[in-house]
Specification:
650 residues, mainly beta, Jelly Rolls, 3 domains, 6-stranded mixed β-sheet, 37 strands, 34% strand, elongated
Length: 650
């Protein structure tokens, strides 16, 4: 299950919206303009509004008169079409460019019809072999530019590609001329100006990407080299090997190189990105390396205070002005095709394990990515090394400040990044050093024979998504629990009467209750688990405003170990906000876990957290858990084996 839809603005489009197309602009008596400079740049100084498009043509007669387009014995000739979005001053506007389509075809004007964000119809159909001399009559586009919202598009077309018709003039429907369409279908964007450049190249002269039209290939910050073996049309798809401290497909972005142990800070505006890069030396095959990248969105940085522990945490464990935001952390190996591209929205999903979505959804102040499967990417004087990009995106889509979603206290993300790796020597690596409440163990290291015992029983055979071997283990001290020993913990056993927990949680603090069900007195077929939860913070606000308090329910795991793409809701984990319950009833009606939805022999963790994303205040809580037989109270909130919360009146 991918979660990009929660983060990107494209998800806001309705999947059933009416098909969207563009309206061509008229210039004089025609909607088709002729490329004025060939070879060279044609600047469109009249801003292109949303839902409109510009039609361009490049007559074949004009191309035939250009000497660089005549084969000089260096192989086939190709047309290189380049597009740049410009700002008001005529310079390149480097902001992301979403839902703008730059299309090229021979013999007819290409167009696109958008049915929804993933269903586009191109006329003529898209080419499947864009560099093939015998390419069929088709539409060409820069697929990477469309996917990654680049303000620079680069399209290579075979000079001798088949025409879509046999017409002889660009004024006729279908000719041997070339046509370009620039379509602005981003309904949320403003108008923009742009530049088009068309030139003739061959396999010897084809340049690498040029994201800056005034600079050379690779932005004059790198070297154009052949792509790795196996890449299609390598002579036409050369890649940039960037200078130190530079990155992305055209070396146009400053990407600092971080050393082992580096700690850096960065302020990221809403919807903004920040990037760094790593080069991790690889040990011999007999050693299991470890790479840990951590993010703190709190002014305390790292350490026990991040979880509200220790005297230094008093008054500082929560976010303060200048800290906050809604960050998501990505640690991505550099692309094996040599493109050097930076992480993007398309990488924010649960399938590739490079983004810390658990911390994102749980609204944590500590985010981390720890990987043990480092991939050799580059040969150095000291041996092989793995290369990674570290990226942080400050999302602005989730907390909108409307009736359904509270607003962030501090939209800007002022984050602290810490990078550590181990290649065979030194202590084991655990996120935030187990919050000072436990001992870090390496399951793959020398102390792997003395690992702490799990508090959870083994999953029975046949359970989907069984947990794999851990990459690290925190052995927690008495009274502490969680994957990282980040909270206080207590045990509950049913049906030995109603079990109670109560206390106070400061912003950024966890409390865990581990529930065991005794089959001698609890019938999975007939009984239910009743959970009564109360929260009060002493403020004059109604409970429906308590957006900071939530309860998690996880099967045989702590919340940070939830399997986000599991089909089992208890393995995926429940996250229930007190404000949502209070909007229905204040005080909230009890929660009910039906015994038939639970698995005998397993334990269930009830986690409670005080998030400081939208509200910053300590609250007092009470949690009562008991078992109920077949006769139930009249009103319950039932957690059924469904993908969403269901309200049942029984």
């Amino acid at each position: 299950m991918a979660f990009i839809s929660i983060i990107t603005s494209k998800a806001l489009a309705s999947p059933t919206m009416a098909p969207q197309s563009c309206t061509p602009r008229a210039f004089g008596s025609s909607t088709v303009q002729t490329v004025t400079s060939f070879p060279g740049d044609t600047n469109q100084t009249s801003p292109l509004p949303p839902s409109t498009c510009d039609y361009w043509t490049l007559p074949i007669s004009r191309i035939g008169k250009e000497g660089s387009c005549v084969s000089q014995g260096n192989g086939p000739t190709f047309l290189l079409f380049e597009f740049w979005r410009l700002d008001a001053n005529g310079a390149v506007d480097t902001r992301p460019l979403e839902d703008v389509h730059v299309l090229v075809a021979r013999g007819t004007q290409p167009n696109v019809l958008v049915y929804d964000v993933n269903d586009l119809l191109y006329q003529p159909p898209l080419s499947v072999r864009p560099y093939d001399i015998s390419s069929n009559r088709s539409t060409l586009r820069d697929a990477d530019a469309a996917l990654f919202w680049r303000p620079y598009h680069r399209i290579v077309a075979s000079y001798n590609a088949s025409s879509n018709s046999s017409g002889s003039s660009s004024t006729e429907p279908g000719s041997s001329d070339w046509f370009v369409t620039v379509s602005n279908l981003d309904r949320n964007s403003s108008s923009f100006t742009y530049a088009l450049r068309v030139s003739c190249v061959n396999e010897t002269t084809a340049p690498c990407p040029r994201p800056l039209p005034s600079a050379g290939q690779c932005s004059d910050r790198g070297t154009c080299v052949a792509p790795p073996q196996g890449v299609a049309s390598p002579a036409l798809t050369r890649v940039c090997k960037c200078d130190p401290g530079r990155g992305d497909y055209g070396c146009q972005t400053a990407v600092p190189l971080l050393a082992n142990g580096a700690v850096v800070t960065r302020a990221i505006e809403p919807n903004g990105w920040a990037f760094w890069q790593l080069r991790v030396p690889l040990p011999p095959d007999s050693v299991k390396p470890s790479l840990l990248v951590e993010l703190s969105r709190s002014p305390v940085g790292f350490g026990p205070a991040l979880g509200g522990f220790g005297p230094e945490a008093t008054g500082t464990a929560s976010t303060s002005a200048g800290f906050g935001g809604d960050p998501v952390l990505v640690v991505m190996p550099k692309d094996p095709n040599g493109s050097n591209r930076l992480p993007w929205f398309s990488d924010l999903n649960s399938n590739n394990n490079i983004a810390d979505l658990r911390s994102y959804f749980l609204q944590q102040n500590l985010h981390y990515v720890l990987t043990r499967n480092l991939i050799a990417g580059v040969s150095t004087d000291d041996g092989w090394a793995a290369e990674y990009y570290v990226a942080v995106h400050n999302n602005r889509q989730r907390f909108t400040g409307d009736a359904q979603n509270a607003a962030l206290l501090y939209p800007q993300a002022n984050v602290t990044i810490r990078v550590r790796w181990s290649t065979g020597s030194g202590p084991a690596l655990c996120p935030n050093d187990c919050y000072g409440g436990g001992t870090c163990h390496d399951p793959w290291g020398a102390n792997s024979t003395s690992l702490p015992a799990s508090i959870f029983p083994a999953f029975p055979a046949g359970v989907s998504n069984p947990p794999g071997p851990p990459d690290f283990m925190c052995g927690c001290t008495a009274g502490r629990g969680g994957r990282l020993c980040e909270g206080r913990i207590a045990n509950m056993t049913l049906p030995s009467g109603e079990r109670d927990a109560a206390g106070a949680l400061a912003p950024g603090q966890w409390s865990f209750s581990v529930l065991s069900l005794d089959p001698a007195g609890f019938s999975y077929a007939r009984d239910t688990v009743a959970i009564r939860w109360r929260v009060i913070d002493g403020s004059p606000d109604p409970a429906a405003k308590y957006s900071n308090a939530y309860l998690t329910i996880d099967e045989n795991a702590f919340p940070r170990d939830a399997v986000l793409d599991s089909n089992d809701p208890f393995r995926r984990g429940w996250q229930i906000f007190y404000s949502s319950l209070a909007q229905r009833s204040d005080p909230p009606v009890p929660l009910q876990l039906r015994g038939s939805d639970l698995k005998p022999g397993l334990r269930y963790v009830l986690g409670m957290y005080n998030s400081d994303y939208t509200r910053k205040i300590t609250f007092n809580y009470s949690l009562s858990v008991g078992s109920v037989g077949s006769i139930r109270p009249s009103v319950w909130l039932v957690l059924a084996s469904l993908a969403a919360l269901c309200i049942l009146i029984v």
